[in-house]
């Protein structure tokens, strides 16, 4: 799994699937906290630290990745996507597991330096395309800009559920996609809308009744609908 790709978390919110996550608390500025053999070092902690990130939140961050063995840089978000910070949903596997863990309980404006062991990164296989060798320990320097309600939150469900019947119809999700596409302003092929809509129902309408229920939608256990 590679570091996050563009801002798919905003464009395709209903397609995201959860993965297991372990959270590690961060200490005050200058302190460290263990994260399954890794380390989290808080480089800067703003006086106003709210809201703190949690599983399912939509985060906006910049980060650089280095190999611990020689300090060489293998990834820089500032050189990707015209230098825009990355949008991704925390705790669902859009980033490597070590980053999902290390970015828990962060606040906007916070900076961290995290050390991630191979077991929480690319393991014995490595990631040749990303120039990461087998059994590599990774170091990331992270700056978090924003913590927003994620696409699987209660608020997001209620926003899509226009008629308030606690289930999402094709019409409601179609309208939501149109609004999201208009908001991000990216050019897409006309067929993209229908393809994404069909894929959403294929992955989420488990009982095949033509609706996505609150239970089918609500993948984050802390949410109550």
Describe this structure in words.
With 225 residues, this protein is α+β, with helices and mostly antiparallel strands. The protein has 2 domains: 39-148, Chitinase A, domain 3, CATH 3.10.50.40; 154-213, Recoverin, domain 1. It has helices spanning 8-11, 97-102, 154-160, 170-184, 192-204, 214-217, and strands spanning 32-35, 38-44, 58-67, 73-76, 86-89, 111-116, 138-148, 167-168, 212-213. The strands form 2 sheets. Strands 1, 2, 3, 4, 5, 6 and 7 form a 7-stranded antiparallel beta sheet that branches. A hairpin with a 2-residue loop joins strand 1 (32-35) and strand 2. The chain is globular. The protein starts with 7 loop residues before the first helix and ends in an 8-residue tail after the last helix. Mean pLDDT is 78; it is low at 1-35 and 219-225.
